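Hi! If you just cloned this repository, the fastest way to understand the data is to look at a raw example. We've pasted two of them here, unedited. The first protein comes first, obviously.
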Amino acid sequence: MIHLYLSWNALSLLAVFAQGTSLEKTLLPLILDILAITFFLIGVTAILWARRTTRGTSLINRPESGGHVIGQSMVMLSVCWLLLVCIGISLFPTPAHPVQSRKPVPTNDSQSNLVTTTPTQLKLLNRGELTIGIEPVIPLQAYSDNSATDVYTGFDIELIKAIALKINLKPTFKPIPGTNPLNLINGMNGPGQQQFDIAISGLKITDDLKQQVDFVPYLNVGETLLVLKSEHKQITMSNMDDLCNLPTQGIQTLAVQIGTVAQTDLQNVLSSCKSTQSTIHVTPKQEVKDIIDLLNTKQVNAIFQDATITDYYTHNEQFKGKYAMAGLPVNQQNEGIALRKDNSPLRDAIQTAFATLQRDGTYKNLIDKWNFVSNEQLTPAERS
């Protein structure tokens, strides 16, 4: 019986490890089992010792010694326990094939991670943390809260926080000055001087950047003209080539932010214009607030910039309808979360988490909250 009992215990422990069950859940019954066997052995020893000390005494006059009584009690308790175990074996036999998958079964998209990669499998600068490089100067996407310079807000910030939560990581933000995407790429990809695990701040997915890093797309952003509503004219702009015709529509001066993809795109188009290149004057400035000042003081007719920034100025109540978009968004491009090419487990985990946020409505809620009204929302088919 003891042999059968020990065999059953061994199979139970094997099933525990195979199924990924925590060992703590089996420690108490295991301890009780060991105690039962110990009681049995001590009880038998006590009975034998009591009989030995009363050897030669007749059965009628033989007294019941304390050791004899204790031994009998311990033997009876252990035998009862072993009988219960044997009955349990017959009623609840060990499965023939106890090995099962260790992957948890998700119960709800909004509550479960749905990311099979564990944090220990990811290549991270700091264990349990997702260190995120940002340029906190982009209205609506990533910028400093007015109350504190180290508190960041915006669509990108809230999205990456939700993604980090899905993969059980604590988000930590590391700001980088300027608006040049190469600053973020170098801070993440620089040999021997990696500063963060990923980067996010309106990074356009260009062919040049794709040679250096991997991306997880999350927005589809065009480029637009922002004008003063009081100076608003009916502008025809449905593609990049229409920029060449702006002087004929009353726009002869433009402002653009230095180091942005919008600046590069504008320069490329204007350099290809045959007759109007010299009639469009472009003023580059380092910060968004600087080019807004140029527009407010009417030193330029319009600003050429990402649609998300235009959405911010045209739909934010604090500006009270001061600005308007001229024409339509052009040159739609995906923006993405940048990662090192040697960290595919982290890329896959972020991609899976983002897909979950799309399915459970979190992504759409963030799109609506931050007033993205220029068709920036990325559909599931556009993720790849």
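Ok, and the second one:
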Amino acid sequence: MTSPSPIPSPMLSIVTPTRGNFSQDWLDKLLQVEGNVQFILVYPAGVAVKPIADQRVISLVSPYKGEMMQRFVGLLNATGQYVIALDDDDLIHPQVLGLAQAYFQRFPASWVLRLSKNVIDFRQTEQISRDWDAIPAVEALDICRKTLETPHPYQNGKFTGLLELPVAPLSKSFNWLGLLPFSQRLDNHGYHFENFNNIVWQYLFTGFKPPQCVN
């Protein structure tokens, strides 16, 4: 009798807070993501967990209710080299792992890859069901930076390369008074991106594994 082969450590963890009311069509599309991927679905307490016959899927029950807190529970349990958070109605390109690997190979010092996204009304079923466009070669993409000479690098939505963005505004100093209750922070106003969904993060510390929560 032979023991089953161990499941290799995932390269990408996809974390989704959910109330369990996602559609089967959404789940089927999510599970089409290619490569060594881990899917983490985080439910609030008191919600029935849907059985999913796919060993890549981990279902967790959060002791805290709410999208943000459930997302944090999922992120703490993610073991992939890269991690991304999605809502339970977000669709993602099946080759996102290959894209992330190519990007971080080209930019090893980068922390994050913000994905291009398209907002589609749920009634546009034909648009939702159409085939994905091919992902361009990362090494061939031009880089555009926001500078005094190029204050609008998006080029009115026509730029198709990589846009360099800071994680936090670089032109404003951190305001420590913002840590006090009822104070108003202004240092977060500036050119940066929000650090939640649709962004691939990489762990920068080799061998780092976050603590595990029990299902």
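That's it. A detail worth noticing about the second one: The chain is about 15% helix and 15% strand.
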